[in-house]
Amino acid sequence: MLSKTHNGVPLRHLIPCFQSQLRSSLRLTPASPQLYHHMRTFSVQSILRSKDPQPQTEPTRRFVYHAAAAFSTKFKRFDPYAHVFHFNPYNRIQTHKRPKSKRPASGQDAFFITRVGDTNTVAFGIADGVGGWEDAGVDPADFSHGFCEYMASAAYEHKPVSSEALLTAKSLMQRGYDDVCRDNSINAGGSTASVAIANEDGKLEVANLGDSGFVHIRLNAVHYYSEPQTHAFNTPFQLAIVPASMLARAAAFGGAQLCDYPKDADVTQHTLKHGDILIFASDGLWDNLFNQDILRIVSRLMVRLGAWVPSKKRGILVADDIKHTQDDPSIRPPLTLQSALAVEIAGAAKLASVNEEVDGPFAKEVQKYYPRENWHGGKIDDICVIAIVVSEDGKSEMIKSKL
Predict the structure, then answer these.
(1) Residue 91: left if φ>0, alpha if ψ -120 to 50, beta else—which one?
(2) What's the average model confidence in pLDDT over 30-44?
(3) How many CA atoms lie within 13 A of 302 on its CB side?
(4) How far apart, in whole angstroms, are the C-alpha atoms of residue 24 and residue 351?
(5) Is pLDDT at 261 greater than 60 in this prediction?
(6) Longest CA pairwise span in the chain (Å)
(7) What pLDDT shows up at residue 63?
(8) In the CATH scheme, what architecture does the domain 5-402 have?
(9) Which residues of 198-213 are buried (b: 16+ CB within 10 A; e: fewer)?
(10) In whole angstroms, what is the distance from residue 259 CA to residue 262 CA?
């Protein structure tokens, strides 16, 4: 039984009105207690050392990254209590590939979050298995899940020998791709990829290949969003393993198998601030919700929980102390700000995917390129969402020291 309040805020605010909507339309099932055995809140501290030219020194700035993930498999019910993960960077991760029975029930979508080596740098990402491989008798989930597991292992075990050997988003993508290509149990398949490194200096680097992607939200506005990479409509850039037999048939009878490489990924650099929100997701989200839909969900939750504070004179401000990001051991299943964000966004995308009345982004694209198809509503697909809340530890103390 959940306690009625948490830090003075009613828990019903942590998972808002989407619960009743999802229950009525998707007939949610109770959560399995076993799924929460290894779930913990993910919070990573990164130290930003500022070089103040003035004689006066400022307090050390610490950025804390709180992350959670939520997912839904197409054609199956979405359970907001069971289909969510909380991460703890200090827990040891598996450095070997898991059997299929141990994978998250996220279908062809996969994700990972891990600390980089013994630092406070964080690596995370999304991979969406290309469903077209099913026509060749290949399970696309084998590539996407293996790819994410190899990237997680590479980041977790990374030990730079010099400053020039720092891990980058593209190099991590390359390492995961090389490892999955060497895996004899994966003979074919492919996936898109959106891989990120949040460094200890507060800088974020993202390598994006295909139509998975992310949105960076700051102060009640979309600060940045990634553009999908596509060869043609509904044909994203994709990493792939193409068997020699397929290549031979293509050479003999024409045609080609798509195979892009980590070097083709778009790489962007970003500076994170206190109160920023990062949403990384597979195309199951982007095909069903517009960026403004995601912004409305984020804004509603952040304001309701006091993380963002409305001001009559200055609009929306970030609270000095962002609460509800830590796991309360007295509450099971755990409820945090980041898990509420991930779950509500994934749940809204799930509802939109089965809604035949409201046209989403994918429907708009079909109508643009293929007006005779008469496509309306959402697009049923696997959905995977990572939500990250960025906070600055000791923010209120820093402000007081400057007064």
Answers:
(1) beta
(2) 38
(3) 33
(4) 11
(5) yes
(6) 75
(7) 82
(8) 4-Layer Sandwich (3.60)
(9) bbbebebbbbbbbbbb
(10) 10
**3 state SS for the chain:** CCCCEECCEEHHHCCCCHHHHHHHHHCCCCCCHHHHCCCCCEEEEEEECCCCCCCCCCCCEEEEEEEEEEEECCCCCCCCCCCEEECCCCCCCCCCCCCHHHCCCCCCEEEEEEECCCCCCEEEEEEEECHHHHHHCCCHHHHHHHHHHHHHHHHHCCCCCCHHHCCCHHHHHHHHHHHHHCCCCCCCEEECEEEEEECCCCEEEEEEECCCEEEEEECCEEEEECCCCEEECCEECCEEECCHHHHHHHHHHCCCCCCECHHHCEEEEEECCCCCEEEEECHHHHCCCCHHHHHHHHHHHHHHCCCEEEECCCEEEECCCCCCCCCCCCCCCCCCHHHHHHHHHHHHHHHHHCCCCCCCHHHHHHHHHCHHHCCCCCCCCCEEEEEEEEEEECHHHHHHHHC
Cα separation, 300 vs 84, in Å, equals: 20
Under a CB-based contact definition with an 8 Å cutoff, are residues 334 and 36 in contact? yes
pTM: 0.83
Q: Give the pLDDT score at 100.
A: 85
Contact at 8 Å (CB) between 250 and 257?
yes
Q: How far are the Cα atoms of 14, 40, 226, 317, 326 from residue 2, in angstroms, in the given order?
A: 12, 17, 38, 30, 16
Mean pLDDT value of segment 218-225: 96
Positive or negative torsion for Cα 105, 177, 258, 188: negative
**Residues shown for the chain:** 403
95 Cβ contact list (under 8 Å, min separation 6): 153, 156, 157
